[in-house]
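Researcher: I'm preparing a figure for a lab meeting and need a structural model of a single chain. I don't have an experimental structure, so a prediction will have to do for now. The sequence is pasted below. Please return the structure as C-alpha cells so I can convert it later.
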Amino acid sequence: MERLEITLAKRLLKINAIMFQPERPFLWGNGWSAPIYNDNKITLSYPDVRRFLKVELSRLILENFGEAEVVASVAMGSIAMGALVADTLGLPFVYLRNVPKDHGLENMIEGNFKPGQKVVLIEDLVSTGHNAIKAMREMQLAGGEVLGMVAMFTYKFAEATEAFRQEGLQLLSLTNFDAMLEAALETGNITDKDAQDFELWHEDPESWTPETLKID
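Model: Understood. Here is the structure written out cell by cell.
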C-alpha cells in the first residue's frame, strides 16, 4: 500500500499546490531564493483534497495529542484548515496573529482561550520553524500547555529540526520534502537531475542561487 505521505504529495502536485521553477526561482517571504514553492491555501478549493487533509490532520491529533482541549492555527495560511479540523474534533478553535492587533483589544490570540488549556498547534507549512516557535511561545505566555504541532508539509530543514528540538516542540507532518521528491519523480514532474539539484538547494537554502545549478 502506498504511504500516506506519498499519496498526499501526489495530490498536492496534481493541483499545483507544489510548484517547481529552478531556472526562475521563487522569492520566499524570508528572502530566500527557492526552486520550489508551496501554495497550500489552494487546497481549500478542492473538496477531495480539503477533506483528505481535514481527516488526516484530525487523525494525527487524536492518535498523538488526544488530550488536546483547543486547536490553534498559526496565522495566516492555516486558519481555514485549523477551523475545519477543530470542527471535526468538536474542539474550540483559536488562531494566533503574527503581530498584535493594532486596535480594539490588541489581541495576539483570537478566540475564546482560557489559561491552563491544552493546545495543539496547526501549521500548513513548516520551513525554518520560526513562526511555529513564536506561536508556541505566545500560547505559553498566555498560559496554554502546548502539546505539539501538526502540519500539512515540512521541508525538514536542519535549522528547523534543531529549533524544534531545543524548544521541546514535537512536530508531526502529513508529508515532507523527501516524500515530495519521491512523488514528483514517480509522476514525472521532475527528472533525476532536478531531484539532485533540489537536494543541493535543500542542503543550504539560505545561500543557494540559480548559478549553483549551472551545467558544466
